[in-house]
Design goal:
This protein is mostly beta strands and 390 residues long. It has a single domain (40-389), classed as Porin (Beta Barrel). 7% of the residues lie in helices and 53% in strands. It has helices at residues 4-18, 20-23, 144-147, 160-165; strands spanning 36-39, 46-62, 68-85, 87-97, 118-128, 131-139, 169-178, 182-189, 205-212, 236-251, 259-277, 280-290, 296-298, 304-307, 311-321, 326-337, 346-358, 362-373, 379-389. A hairpin with a 5-residue loop joins strand 2 (46-62) and strand 3 (68-85). It is globular and about 70 Å long.
Length: 390
């Protein structure tokens, strides 16, 4: 007779042997950070699927009262699909936001009173040579810092200049022309921002951007990546200028902000310079925004009730990536709203440190900012963030 202990061992072996398909691993040739790719057998389409998230801890301290607020949140959580359909020259991209902080432009009638989860949804067609036509919802060709993916930033997040003045995303048509030393982008968009479901209350948005790369292209599209992870062997520089005219904008900042119930024309000019060389990188941006008819909204008794966001801003940042993939960086940002809008000037000094384990796909970033603003107490903001992108 077989001992009880032996029977148990044989039973366990049989169970695990029979269930081996359940625990088997599917081996993929895809690498970490590049998503999962599928190509149809007849090459009629492809899909690349990726996910990423950022876990952020932030604490802000009032330096006058020592009072502080802290928060631990999922700053961003996204799903991205891209690939081609019918022909490799006809490509698409879809990006969805799942975190609450990424969908906060919803819950208004203009967005259908729903969460606004669609970030990107567009087709791009390389119809000839260096020319590509985009159609759908995408980032407008505004300031460089905004177009750089939130996954590929040099700091925990973008600067206050970007927060106050960027053009963000919009629905429309874009025409891109790219060469080794010159890029040109023009866009015609609805001018109201992303995910608007009601009739356009104003006019359209018109955007033009030109870029000059005197030393040629960056490695691995590094002109739109924070930090010199490619360690450019030769100096690389990209100079960019953008002009945007938003005809009868309805939102406080054009494509962003609150709906104010009236319309104003808004003009925005961006200028930026991005430099990289052997681990060193720098990014300088300037913005000027105005409303030709004036930014103020007044009631029947001539009292100011609201104002469009106009003014100017400047931001400069630089960092050095050591060979162990630690980076030290600093940033200075000043935002000066137009005085008649009764908004305060804000200045921020930021020092950051990053450790890149697998480039921007797996990294830990931290920064400390000293913030000064008229009529407000000085503040110290500390942030720590983990980024994972599969």
């Amino acid at each position: 007779m077989v001992p009880a202990k032996t029977r148990i061992q044989l039973t366990l072996i049989a169970v695990f042997t029979g269930c081996s398909p359940v625990f088997a691993q599917d081996i993929t040739k895809n690498s970490f950070g590049n998503g999962i790719s599928i190509v149809a057998a007849d090459s009629s389409f492809s899909v690349n699927a990726g996910v990423r998230f950022q876990t952020l801890y932030q604490i802000t301290t009032d330096l006058d009262s020592d009072a502080y607020e802290d928060n631990l949140q999922i700053r961003r959580s996204r799903i991205k699909l891209d690939g081609f359909v019918y022909n490799p020259k006809l490509q698409y991209k879809i990006e969805l936001a799942l975190a609450n902080s990424d969908t906060n432009v919803g819950s208004v009638p203009q967005s259908g009173n729903t969460s606004s989860i669609v970030l990107d949804a567009y087709i791009k067609y390389n119809f000839t040579g260096n020319w590509t036509l985009w159609f759908g919802q995408a980032k407008l060709p505004g300031n460089r810092e905004r177009v750089i993916s939130s996954q590929a930033l040099q700091f925990v997040d973008r600067s206050n200049l970007n927060s106050r003045f960027n053009l963000d995303r919009d629905v429309g048509v874009q025409l891109h022309y790219k060469t080794n030393k010159f890029n040109f982008i023009t866009a015609l968009s609805m001018g109201e921002g992303r995910n608007i479901v009601v009739e356009n209350a104003g006019g359209y948005g018109y955007t033009v951007r030109g870029e000059y790369l005197p030393f040629g292209k960056f490695k691995e599209k590094g002109d739109y990546v924070g930090a010199d992870l490619s360690r450019e062997e030769d100096p690389k520089l990209s100079l960019g200028v953008t002009y945007d005219y938003n005809d009868r904008a309805s939102k406080e900042r054009g494509q962003l902000g609150d709906f104010l119930g009236v319309q104003r024309d808004l003009e925005t000019i961006f200028a930026d310079a991005h430099f990289k060389y052997r681990g060193f990188s720098s990014l300088i941006e300037f913005v000027y925004k105005k409303s030709p008819d004036g930014p103020l909204i007044k009631d029947s008794e001539n009292n100011v009730t609201a104002a469009f966001y106009t003014g100017r801003g400047f931001s400069a940042q630089a960092g050095y990536l050591f060979k162990n993939n630690f980076e030290l960086a600093g940033r200075y940002t000043i935002v000066t709203p137009e005085k008649i809008t009764l908004r305060n000037e804000n200045t921020q000094y930021t020092v950051g440190v990053s450790k890149y384990f697998v480039g921007h796909n797996l990294k830990v970033q931290s920064d400390v900012s000293f913030i000064t603003e008229a009529t407000q107490s000085d503040a110290l903001m500390y942030r720590l963030q983990l980024e994972v992108a599969l």
